[in-house]
Amino acid sequence: LKMAGDLTKFDARIQNLIRNAEKLTAHNTKITLTVAINYGGRWDSLQAVKAWQANNPLEPIENATEELVQPYLAMAHAPDPDLLIRTGGEMRISNFMLWQLAYTELYFSDVLWPAFDDKELSTALDFYRGRDRRFGGSTVSTAANG
After folding, report:
1. How far apart are CA 53 and CA 32, in angstroms?
2. Mind listing the pLDDT tens digit for each residue in 59-109?
3. How many helical (H) and strand (E) elements, i.e. helices and strands, does the chain have?
4. Which letter does DSSP use for residue 97 in this model?
5. Of the listed ranges 3-17, 67-81, 100-114, 132-146, the one predicted with least confidence
6. Which DSSP string corresponds to 52-68?
7. How would you classify the pairing of strands 83-86 and 2-4?
8. How far apart (Å, rounded) are the C-alpha atoms in residues 108 and 117?
9. Beta bridge partners of 106
10. Closest Cα partner for 40 from 92, 80, 99?
11. What percentage of the chain reaches a pLDDT higher than 70?
């Protein structure tokens, strides 16, 4: 179990319960459940830069790079998502994992979460399988260039 978010806003008792739950499950190896609680992508990016600076006080901020800051993100323990499924007809990512979603394929469904079933998931996965994942690169279509 891992929590991602600004836990400082919670009562000390809740923070202790969270830390204890994370410690109790720290050596589990089959699955990691991450709960985003009081989490925002803007907060995450800012806190990561601040944490990097705190751990590197003699380094000018100009020396910060993506590779140096990334380990300080709340979700550094997990790979970046390949697919984000947004349900309920919303067409935005709403400040969620802004750093990590840079090359994620986005799938938007009008179906509300409780009704999002295996058929809907299959449709989302079919969409993902059909994507040409270039990770910021581009391809030149030979048909377009004659």
Report:
1. 28
2. 999 999 999 999 999 999 999 999 999 999 999 999 999 999 999 999 999
3. 4, 4
4. S
5. 132-146
6. HHHH-TTS-GGG--HHH
7. unpaired
8. 14
9. 84
10. 99
11. 94
Residue 101 tokens read as: 């979603």
pTM here is: 0.82
On whether the CB atoms of residues 33 and 2 are closer than 8 A, the answer is: yes
Using 50, 70 and 90 to split pLDDT, how confident is the model at 146?
very low
Count Cβ atoms within 10 A of the Cβ of residue 75 and give its class: 0-12 exposed, 13-18 middle, 19 or more buried.
buried
- Mean of pLDDT values over 10-25: 97
Please give the Cα distance from 88 to 23 (Å, whole number). 35
Range 96-99, long-range pairs (CB < 8 A, 24+ positions)? 96/36, 96/39, 96/40, 96/41, 97/41, 97/44, 98/41, 98/42, 98/44, 98/45, 99/41, 99/44, 99/45, 99/48, 99/70, 99/73
User: Residue 105 in 3-state DSSP?
Assistant: strand
**How far is residue 75 from each of residues 63, 81, 83, 96, 134, measured CA to CA in Å?**
22, 11, 16, 11, 23
Q: Which of 91, 134, 94, 135 is nearest to 110 (CA)?
A: 91
Structure tokens, 22? 């994370």
Q: Contact, 127 vs 107, CB < 8 A?
A: yes
